[in-house]
Amino acid sequence: MIDYTTLFRANLPPAAAKYNGFPKYNFVGGHNDAASVPVDDFIAAASKVLKREGSTLATYGLQSGPQGYCALREFLVKKLGRDAGIGCTADDILITGGSQQGLELVNSMLLEKGDTIVVEEASYGGFLSRVKRYGVDMIPLPLDKQGLDIEAVGRALADLKSKGIRPKYLYTIPTVQNPTASVLPLERRHALIKLCESYGVPIVEDECYSDLVWEGKRPQAMRGITGDDRVIHIGSFSKSIAPALRLGYIVAGWPVMSRLLSLKTDSGTGAIDQMIIAEYCEAHFDNHVVALRKTLKRKLDVLTEALGANFGTAAEFEYPEGGIFLWIKLPDSVDTAKLFQAASKEGVSLNPGAEWSIDPVYGKSRLRLCFANPTEQTIREGVAKLAEICNREFGVPTRIANVGR
Length: 405
What we know:
This protein is α/β, with parallel strands linked by helices. The chain has twelve helices and 14 strands.
């Protein structure tokens, strides 16, 4: 036998834990509502498109080229123009293996060890962990109820310039921010673009949750406002259709796109997935998303009611404008990393706030609960169980629902 521990390269990420199935009360990950996956429509779309174009599977790129299946990119041109106010062509779109691959391609194109980026103080944990591997300095930007504090962004950029530092980019999730679920108002988007332009800093706009705004209307995307590569736009079908599909996209002009293509060396994103989703979306996307929003909002209401019943005022949060998760502040005495460990042993899984924050002190007493996948009854039971564990470990809440108020 070969001892591979003597061969592993330095600075590998920690070893993955072996998968042992979902916990009983699973409030982590970007999973979605299982009953909302349109299985029958997928079957019909697969049959139709494969009968029509299945022979193109004989070639890499489906005779559409390296940027992805042309019909899917053409659907996105229409969707982005209508919903996000982005004017683009199919040549401006690259299909990726989820938004994560899109982010990784942008990072591979721009980042080197010692670089600096500016990023929201609470942000997507998968992004933060990947950027750390590049040896990049991340400057946190404060958030309020409406997203990025533009005046604070200005101060941060001015401070960096005074030190001779030009950030490679500003990373933001402006529409249903992850994890806070805030939506950046249009006037702030304009101000942010103007500010970043004045310092020569591009914006990477991650919009993978933007289809899940409850009211169905979202502010214009910043890529739509600029119309050029001052903003690189990243989106996904993972939250609006199904995460296991691993379909995302990047919107960028050719000077950027040509570099991204040279880095995307996977021989193409899953072809059959692209074909099926393009066929499905053309006929069903709008109605599907309207129904999905209603389902998710109902589950959010169940979650917030359960938190009120079991945690009372000990759990503080802003009611989100959309999405699949809730960002919660518990009393300062609670360390959610330790709560995660205790809860995991009893079948309750949560995201501790430190994993979603640049400053671990800011995230220490915060946590993210994803509500899309559990059933409504599971949400109720899981929150009650979490309150029981939190009370036992930290004395918070001081009184919980099953012992009266």
